[in-house]
Write a structure and sequence with these properties.
single chain; 320 residues; alpha+beta; Sulfite Oxidase, Chain A, domain 2; 7-stranded mixed sheet; 5-stranded mixed sheet; 12 strands; 20% helix; globular
Length: 320
């Protein structure tokens, strides 16, 4: 007998609010503010969709194990409010990000693996099954959104890489091209952007490599063509525009950890009881509504990831 167990992130289909309903609710605000700014950027995005060689993979079939109890953040809001320091330290970088050339895009897999190799993104995505998942996203700056990401489990890339037994961590690196990404001309930042996770985190079912959103290939400002989504961690762990995956024996030092490790540590697990040194993490502002709501431990995904940290609570600062 098969018994389906309701998971903590699941929402009955009849209770889900459609994206269209929330887009309609926000149309006046979008037209008065951010919507007017889409302009040429929106036209460019449409042109990209017409020629993107992976466009036939979208919209991907939704994996109903990964749903959310909150409304989906409208694309018009989400696509114009982005952290992407390669293009600037403010949130309105979406127009600058259009300068990023995402074809051709090579992904290097190296380090402690059987055979290091380089693969074109368009070839990589054909080796996996693309699906859609609805995930919460919690920024360390205490705002949140919900996103219909498309992509594939990070553990599928790990399987393709065939890491050796001594590989304990996965180090990820984004592109480095200051001529295009003018934020990378700021020499006080340790470019390129680097992030890292343990092998256990990388192979957890929730760890997701994102290739699309809102039923389309990924917008450049989201971190096209390949970014990470770790919904139980603060958003800075979800590295964008990845070009390299390195399997290592030693723990990597991430971009923000190099800058200020007492504020942005390796683990970065969401915890409302541990404040950022400069603000509380107990509550978060929902991006589309401005409503302040309580933050959940592990962003509400604790049942599925808390075991990854058994025995480390007193040895490591897990929530910074």
């Amino acid at each position: 007998m098969f018994v389906k167990r309701q998971r903590g992130w699941e929402l009955p289909e009849h209770a889900a609010t459609s994206e269209a309903a929330f887009l309609n609710r926000r149309q006046l605000l979008a037209a008065a503010g951010g919507g007017l700014l889409l302009g040429a950027g929106g036209l460019r995005a449409k042109a990209e969709e017409a020629v993107d060689p992976t466009a036939d993979l979208y919209p991907a079939k939704r994996n109903e194990l990964y749903t959310i109890e909150r409304p989906v953040t409208p694309e018009a809001i989400n696509s114009t409010y982005n952290n992407f320091y390669e293009f600037g330290s403010h949130k309105r970088i979406y127009q600058r990000a259009q300068a990023l050339n995402i074809r051709p895009w090579e992904v290097r897999i190296d380090g402690e693996v059987e055979n290091p190799f380089t693969i074109e993104f368009d070839d990589l995505i054909r080796k996996v099954s693309v699906e859609e998942r609805l995930y919460r996203h919690r920024c360390v700056e205490a705002w949140s959104m919900t996103v219909p990401w498309s992509g594939f489990p990070l553990k599928d890339l790990v399987a393709l890489a065939k890491p050796l037994s001594k590989a304990k961590y996965l180090r990820m690196e984004t592109f480095h091209n200051p001529d295009v990404a003018t934020g990378q001309k700021q020499s006080w930042y340790p470019w390129p952007y680097v992030e890292g996770v343990t092998i256990e985190e990388a192979t957890n079912d929730l760890a997701f490599l994102v290739t699309g959103a809102y039923g389309k290939p990924l917008h450049k400002q989201f971190g096209a063509p390949l970014r990470l989504a770790l919904p139980w961690k603060y958003g800075f762990k979800s590295i964008k525009s990845i070009v390299r995956f390195s399997f290592t024996e030693e723990r990597p030092v991430s971009f923000w950890e190099q800058i200020q490790k007492n504020e942005y540590g390796f683990w970065a697990n969401v915890n409302p009881e541990v404040s950022h040194p400069r603000w509380s993490q107990a509550r978060e502002t929902v991006l589309e509504s401005g409503e302040k709501i309580p933050t959940q431990l592990f962003n509400g995904y604790g049942e599925y990831v808390a075991h990854l940290y058994d025995g480390l609570e007193d040895k490591e600062p897990l929530y910074m």
